[in-house]
Amino acid sequence: MNYALIGCGRVAYNHLKAAKENGLTVCAVCDIDPDHIFDLYNRVGLSPEEAGAIARYADWNRLFDHEKPELVSIALPSGLHAACAKDAIRRGINVIIEKPIALGMADADEIVRMAEEYRVKVSACHQNRFNLAVQEMRKALEQGRFGALSNAAVTVRWSRGKDYYDSADWRGTWALDGGALMNQSIHGIDLLRWMCGGELKTVYGVARRQFHPYIEAEDVGAAVLAFANGCVATLEGGVNVFGPNLEEHLTLIGSSGVMKLGGTSANTVEYRCFENEGAASENGLVEQTANVYGNGHVSLFRDVIAAIEEDRAPYVTAKDGRDALETVLAVYLSAKTGQPVMLPLKDVKTTDFEGLFD
After folding, report:
1. What is the pLDDT of residue 340?
2. Are 22 and 6 contacting, i.e. CB atoms less than 8 angstroms apart?
3. What domains, with CATH codes, occur in the chain?
4. CA atoms within 13 Å, Cβ hemisphere of 110
């Protein structure tokens, strides 16, 4: 299966590595900066022969038209995800879109609609769903072991300093990125919404720019979420931890079970206790990861390839990406208005919040 990578920045390594490990034929890459391409080749460890066989482009539409890949993954600055994805879908190309799927609801809803119209597979790259610990929680949930859900929580307590934001001028901007919730915390937000039943009714949130005056968006945010099934949840996400990344926790509490995931990216089972299971246990599973991206890209790519071959929906759909985006935008809107926000959202986008912290 011919594959192309669009965008060769920070997270592109995980995409190209996952493509190679899944046996995809890498026919082309695209980036406006040739140095990004060659740096990526070095990081992945491509031989000169491998690198020479991959076509290089600075324009994704030219790549789509000339190379006609069957699958592309998009690892561009966040504000370019939607435009690139729609251009690919119109050509009948299957797409993996790095999070967030878009920066506005209109674009996200259009991607979901177009995926159906053009009959292509579109997956939002929320790879942490494939974490071993997350899969353990999901298995218990689908087996009904939690009983009726009461409440849940996600916390993302990471660290990002000035060097990180200086590494690319789009980081932390409303037009091309968003802040700590949209960029760093959206994986945990996706897991929270997925575990709590998906249908979110009300969000009441706050957001602040505490320690990063050189960015436009928030560096910390928190919210209370009310789901249609009665579950109440809290989320907290920020990048103000002094020192290295601290943790990403996900807790789910039900009438007959409780489970808490931890580590730096919800990659460990820190606690579990279920009815008829015996004594509560701690540290039941620890998945080693090289960084906060985790190990899930390889599994996500494998699933999308199978979805294409079997003509089924991917495990993580465009609708899932749309829902995670909606949650973040609802927090932003509540922070701006000081009022609870009712879902679903329409016509809300990150640029609506320009000047929020000025």
Report:
1. 98
2. no
3. 2-128+297-317 (3.40.50.720), 129-292+323-353 (3.30.360.10)
4. 16
Helix (DSSP H) and strand (DSSP E) numbers for the chain: 11, 15
Other CB atoms within 10 Å distance of the CB of residue 318: 28
Question: Shortest CA distance to 92 belongs to which of 122, 73, 118, 69?
Answer: 118
Supply the DSSP symbol for 45: T
Residue partners of 344: CB distance under 8 A and separation at least 6: 326
| Residues comprising the chain, all counted | 358
Q: How far apart are CA 292 and CA 138, in angstroms?
A: 20
pLDDT digits (tens, 9 = 90+) for 210-255: 999 999 999 999 999 999 999 999 999 999 999 999 999 999 999 9
Q: Judge if the upstream peptide bond of residue 100 is cis by omega within 30 degrees of 0.
A: yes
Report the percentage of the chain scoring pLDDT > 70. Answer: 96
- For residue 252, give the 3-state DSSP assignment: strand
Cβ atoms of 242 and 159 closer than 8 Å: yes
Cα gap 108→178, rounded to integer Å: 15
Please give the C-alpha separations between residue 219 and each of 30, 182, 271, in angstroms, as whole numbers.
30, 10, 29
pTM (two decimals): 0.96
